[in-house]
Design goal:
Blueprint lengths: L2 H10 L5 E5 L3 H15 L5 H4 E5 L5 H9 L8 E6 L18 H9 L5 E7 L8 H11 L6 E3 L5 H15 L2 E2 L1 H10 L4 H15 L4 E2 L1 H7 L5 H13 L2 H13 L4 H20 L5 H10 L6 H13 L2 H18 L6 H12 L2
Parallel strand pairs: 1-4, 1-5, 2-3, 3-4, 6-7
Length: about 350
């Protein structure tokens, strides 16, 4: 089930006795965890009624033993078990070799009344190389019928979350600024909510949030300035390129990090060139299939870089970025001089 379905069930009825929470989306996981604890435990019972275990430190058998025990101090209990993936058999071992595996199946059939047991596995993603690992986790805990999947937010769902959070915070923010915020934070739901709260404190309700506000307050938002530099380089616009570089310096951007972004942007564009990708939708679909999370705004940026840089020019740009990176690693380099020389060479 999805986190939304889980929360809906929490509002309508009692929780199930055992859950598997699986997936890497920590914001939704935190919301569901709070809802579960508030549903099961009265405020005065939470200190004694909430128990925590980590399967990288505690055996599964010990966790089941604890779940079967009754508390003298709280009528209900929530037992939260993190690092559930740590219990997976290694090497040639089978599931039957894991102490407590059989006991878990028996416990699901006959759980302790008043106790909710939650296994949390948040290490693996649902796509790419992690797919097989997350399948193993689900197979090991197959006896648990109630599974909540915490999948990363999509572009659309991240924007909806940001819009809802902005509305709740009472701040005014346009669609373009919302896109900049979501893209800068990579769709990380927890960070989106935190940064909107920072914007609320900084801007208030009297004026609209601007791109400059986001660039000033939000970590990684300087990436948009770096992209402005990429766009100017692609046009051969030396003045605008130097202006963008000056903006990065005034904002205190760590130039080696900016250079790394440049290198990544050029390499993605080169892959798109070589793969014959022409539209942003093709770029997004291609890289997502390769296990590289590609947001719509970022796919547009890659497409614009592809359009601005012919393959031959792009190859020269990657080579010059390599030598600039090497120069920045020299003893006592003048970072500004190195980056200005890179701009001059790419716009000559």
């Amino acid at each position: 089930m999805s986190p939304e379905q889980f929360l809906q069930r929490m509002r309508k009825g009692p929780p199930a006795p055992v859950y598997l929470f699986i997936g890497p989306e920590f914001y939704q996981l935190g919301v569901c965890r709070r809802a579960l604890v508030e549903k099961v435990l009265a405020p005065e019972d939470r200190e004694n009624g909430l128990a925590r275990h980590d399967l990288s430190e505690t055996s599964l058998a010990a966790v089941i033993d604890d779940a079967r025990s009754l508390s003298l101090f709280a009528p209900n209990r929530v037992i939260w078990v993190s690092s559930a993936e740590a219990v997976l058999p290694r090497g040639r071992a089978s599931q039957d070799d894991i102490p407590g595996a059989g006991e878990l199946t028996e416990y699901v059939r006959d759980p302790t009344p008043g106790t909710v047991l939650v296994f949390e596995s948040s290490r693996f993603d649902f796509d790419g190389e992690d797919r097989a690992k997350i399948d193993r986790v689900q197979k090991f805990f197959a006896a648990i019928p109630e599974v909540v999947e915490f999948r990363p937010y999509t572009v659309e769902s991240a924007r909806r979350l940001a819009q809802d959070a902005a509305k709740e915070a009472g701040i005014q923010i346009g669609l373009a600024e919302m896109g900049l915020l979501v893209d800068s934070l990579g769709g990380d739901a927890g960070r989106i909510v935190n940064e909107i709260e920072k914007l609320r404190l900084y801007v208030g309700a009297d004026r609209k949030v601007t791109a400059d506000d986001i660039l000033r307050l939000v970590p990684n938002a300087q990436a948009s300035t770096v992209f402005a530099l990429v766009a100017a380089l692609g046009r051969g616009d030396r003045k605008r390129s130097l202006d963008s570089l000056d903006t990065l310096l005034r904002e205190g951007e760590y130039l080696p990090l900016a250079l790394t972004f440049l290198a990544t942007q050029f390499r993605l564009a080169m892959v798109a060139h070589e793969s014959g990708l022409r539209s942003s939708s093709q770029i997004q679909a291609y890289f997502t299939k390769q296990g590289i999370r590609m947001w719509g705004d970022r796919a547009n940026q890659v497409q614009q870089t592809v359009n601005a840089f012919p393959a031959e020019k792009l190859g020269r740009a990657i080579e010059k970025v390599f030598w600039a990176d090497k120069a920045l690693r020299d003893t006592r380099p003048d970072d500004r001089v190195v980056m200005e020389e890179l701009v001059l060479s790419l716009t000559s």
